Amino acid sequence: MPEYLTAKEIENYFARGMTSITVERMPMLTDEAKEAIKRFNFEIKVQPSAGATPAKGPSSPPASTCGRAKFKQRLQREKPLVGTFIQIAHPVMTEFVGKLGFDFVLIDSEHSAMHIETIQSMLQSLSATPTYGIVRIPTISPEYIATYLDAGADAIVVPQVRTVEDVLRVQEAALYPPEGKRGIGPGRATDFGLRIMERKVAPNKDTVVIIQIETREALENLDAILSVGFYDMVFIGPGDLSMNLGVFGEFANPILTGEIERIIQRSKPYKKKIGIFAGNMDMAIQWLGRGVDLVAINSELGLLAQYVKQSLKNLESHLNEP
Fold first, then answer.
1. In 51-206, at which residue ranges do the beta strands (DSSP E only) sit?
2. Which DSSP helix (H) or strand (E) runs through 294?
């Protein structure tokens, strides 16, 4: 891991609502980083681990995100969030992507083979970055909902929500009593029980739940789904939605874009944030221009594939020049 902090990293921390970071040892700072610290009134707190002897010289980057704004607080800002899905089930991948400048990564356990232990390690790896960790759960299930929230996910995305009854099932599993039926335990979300008594007052204030709209049935029940107040965001899945509407993969088809626009407009009176998947940068720019609050651009594998294919195409074109 790098033994210094750059100005760009500090700018990324600040852009994500962080005014400080806590590290075990003071890292080396570039001159530009020192200027950035002054400019943003940023603070680096040194807190040696228990039993550790303070050391001189460089250290690893921050091992904690205690200076980062809660994800629910970040959602209230006007600046939209940009991130990508993660398909590879390994903490090195989330840590690496978390250092690239994205606001969030969306770990996809719906369509990728991932175990809860691996997902928790992936979330832990983001502690050394300013990037939020969201998990899309496999299906509507109390076990998945509570377990991933307990593992420390900043938010969960619940796929295939079709009815208001589905939403109420999610509420029961995601929220502590009296709003829900979630059990409390010593997971990462409570610092393994060290902060468990903080749940005594306003236990659900930091819980972020995102409901995914991607079926014709959900469109038919849209207002009923939106009327349930506990969740924070509607996430639109254009892929499944286009298949349900009979125009699979035709992302510019008016049938699809019209329904997406209807979701965006109908969500406003209910004060729901809007997120959406975009297959490429052009689509992301298009939807950001329509006022969405969050966009997930492809996945780490999808973006890699796009870059490699285009690079090989450019190379082949160069080699074929006379």
1. 81-86, 104-108, 132-136, 155-158
2. strand 294-299
Whichever domain contains 293, its CATH number is 3.20.20.60
Of 49, 8, 6, give the one whose Cα is nearest residue 28: 6
Instruction: Name 96's Cβ contacts closer than 8 Å, sequence gap at least 6.
Output: none
> pTM of the entire structure?
0.78
Q: What range defines the domain where residue 7 resides?
A: 1-68
Backbone angles phi, psi at 17, to 5 degrees: 90, 10
- Compute mean pLDDT per 10 residues along the chain, 322 residues long, and list them: 66 83 78 82 79 42 54 93 98 97 97 94 94 97 94 97 98 96 89 82 90 98 97 98 97 97 97 97 94 97 96 91 75
On whether the CB atoms of residues 206 and 72 are closer than 8 A, the answer is: yes
- C-beta separation of 210 from 234 below 8 A: yes
311 lies in a domain? no
Query: For residue 219, what are its two tokens?
Result: 């469109």
Q: How far is CA 204 from the centre of its chain?
A: 19
Q: Which active-site residues does the annotation give? A: 111
